[in-house]
Amino acid sequence: MRRVIIVLVLISFFYIGIRGAWAAPIGILSNSSHYYSEIGTAIDKLLGSPYTSSQFTIDYTTASTDPCSSGNTVFAGYDPAVAVGTNSNFEYCNSSDATTSPQFPFQIFTTSFTGYTGDSIPEYNAFSSYNITDNYAFTNELTSGDIQEPPTLYTAPGNAAFGSGAGVEWTLNQSVYCGTDTTLSCLTAANSGVMGWLLYEHPTWNLFDVKAAMRQSGTNWATGYSPSTYGFGVVTATTTNMLTDSQILLQPPEATATTIQNTLGMQITFTVFPFRQTRRVKDVLFEFATTTPGFEENELTLSQIQGLGGEEVMQYMGTTATSTLTPIYMPVNNAHFVWFTADNSTDSLAHFSRIDTYNVLGPISQGGISFASASANNAISTTTSPVFTWKDANGDIGVSKYELYIDGILNRDNIFGTSTTPTSP
């Protein structure tokens, strides 16, 4: 007798990693000439000598109707099309205030605008195939709680002149980079120079590796992300530079959870921005139904997460940000959830990112899903091509399709109705 299983599945995703190994020159683009020179000043300080055009290309933009020396701000916010070269409305200027042919795509984009509101899915996905980050001036206007976690695509440094708050990632030593100039514009420009220098010094790193390494060298690393004390704290570039590839620890993905009330109960939907370090293979969601997980400084194994009360719910191997991920399980009440980054497709062999202070989501409740087969369990069929039938899935979880498995082997895929027959007798 053959064993038959009908399984509900969600859409799966493929992973394509982004590797560092970007050859020099490293491209940095400022939105205008405002504090543009501070980018090169920071790099020169770290190199110990003036940078060359074979090491870095640092440009800024102006409106095409203005000369490069005008220094006018040319766009009032984040413009991915400028950084990757698909927007031709601006001219690009070099350190001599002369029009130049820029290097596309740039690896680092930096702007002095305030009004930062955190990562967005369209912006993240516009750059999903590029090795790029956007330095954005952080102000304490975010202390109202709009954003509770550090950004992924963006890099948001802060400084004392503007205070700290939720969303800031780290800060630099003001006396080292900007001295008595306490403007956030100066520090943001200097931060882009620091990140460019680290990318240059470590050609096997991508910019997610750079961000992870900088977080790890912060003064708050051992105690976790703190919105009140500049995120991961004061970052030291020389300490970051000493880290080797194998010493960079995995960072959790940026993730949020929302619950929606419908006629069948509560539905949990997760928004996830993968932190695509070189080691990253997938993101994994764990539910903590009876315990509230606390801060864990180091990477974890599967058995350690289970020992803390975690039970795996789902995996995401995509490289784009999404807000469509919903868990599949029985109803839960006041559970906590944690998204981890993992470096191996096999859970028992994987290292998982730590539990930081910002990536515990909950308590959250959700209703359930029901699925009943109309074909009798353990029934014996007198035909070699039986018709299997079942009731439509009910609940607050979206179902993409059904699959028929026979003896553990996929027999028929992409079933969209509520009955099917085997592909052969």
How would you sum up this structure, described in words?
The chain has 425 residues and is an alpha/beta fold. It has helices at residues 36-47, 80-83, 121-126, 174-177, 184-201, 207-216, 237-241, 302-307, and strands at 4-9, 26-30, 56-63, 90-93, 108-111, 133-136, 154-155, 171-172, 234-235, 254-262, 265-273, 282-288, 311-316, 322-325, 332-342, 360-366, 369-370, 388-389, 394-395, 401-406, 409-415, 419-420. It has a 6-stranded mixed sheet, with helices on one face. A 4-stranded antiparallel sheet has the order 13-12-15-16, with no helix packed on it. Strand 2 (26-30), helix 1 (36-47) and strand 3 form a beta-alpha-beta unit. Helix 1 (36-47) crosses helix 5. The longest helix is centred in the middle third of the chain and has 18 residues, at 184-201. The two termini are 13 Å apart.
Explain briefly what this protein structure is.
The chain is an alpha/beta fold and 425 residues long.
Top keywords for this entry?
alpha/beta, six-stranded mixed beta sheet, four-stranded antiparallel beta sheet, 22 strands, 15% helix
Topology readout:
Blueprint: E1 4-9, E2 26-30, H1 36-47, E3 56-63, H2 80-83, E4 90-93, E5 108-111, H3 121-126, E6 133-136, E7 154-155, E8 171-172, H4 174-177, H5 184-201, H6 207-216, E9 234-235, H7 237-241, E10 254-262, E11 265-273, E12 282-288, H8 302-307, E13 311-316, E14 322-325, E15 332-342, E16 360-366, E17 369-370, E18 388-389, E19 394-395, E20 401-406, E21 409-415, E22 419-420
Parallel strand pairs: 2-3, 2-5, 5-6, 6-7, 8-9
Antiparallel strand pairs: 1-20, 3-4, 10-11, 11-14, 12-13, 12-15, 15-16, 17-19, 18-22, 20-21
Helix pairs in contact: 1-5
